[in-house]
Amino acid sequence: MNKFKTAVLPAVLSVSVLGLAACGNNEGETLITSKAGDVSSANVIDQMGKDEVAQTAFQILMTDILKDKYGKKVDEDKIKKDVDAEVKKYGGEKQFESILQQQQAGMTISKYKESRINDAYQTELMKDTVKVSDNEVKKNAKKGSHILIKIKSETDPSGLTATKAKEKAENVLKEVKANPDDFAKIAKKESGDTGSKANGGSLGYVVKGQTVEAFEKALFKLDENEISGLVKSDYGYHIIKADKQDDFNKQKDSLKEKVRQAKIQENPKLMIDAYKKLLKDYDVDYKDKDIKKVVDEQILTTQGAQQ
Questions:
Q1: Using N-to-C axis directions, what is the helix angle for 93-103 and 109-129, rounded to 10°?
Q2: Does 73 have pLDDT greater than 50?
Q3: Where would one find the signal peptide in this protein (predicted)?
């Protein structure tokens, strides 16, 4: 839900914009002076447009509300230390910041820390909003491995023709059925899924909604250690194994979060209603009608939440 994450604009500008919206001052605060003329927050708003101003103001507002509500549940110092450990792991500040900027222009380590902190507050709101029981996790998460024989496509020319892919998949399936204990070994040799091949085809825990429908249906029908027949998807032919879930209790909390995310993706209105309740609880009053209109019609909507 990117609409509700950390504002990308510099903090000083964002606060000035929010202050202008709150006080209704048409002239705005003077930000820069020169012999050629002054630049006010009103000038900046005119240049940015109401949509961007409203989104930025709303982001700041929600950050403040979530920090007030969940401040005792989020350890900001620990999050910052975790980021520092990441920075060290990836070769230092310069290297890490370069990686960040490849993902999002203008991103810095400081902004990344703020983003991680805001994500933690968002997670607390999601926990309050979408409850997930242990039983739901068991129904919606399953540990599995697969071997993929890829079919050549426009986006991935490395696969085989449909006919050759099916022929190879049938031969690999025969080998797997004859030697089920060698599934991982065969996957390392034959699978076209580079993401799981090195791990013997292991996908870890798969949560419903994460994979294509044909794959999901096949995996969740299997009993522990059972191996499927050929399962065709847009990627090619899969041979799927349901793995032993001996680490379920250890993984349960992280799986709950994945199931929660899947529920929200399926029904974004859950979070929209949660934000609306927060705004009501905190007596939010929009002093600018245009900002209120953008929030109501573009941000707090199902379409807005999915962008």
A1: 60
A2: yes
A3: 1-21
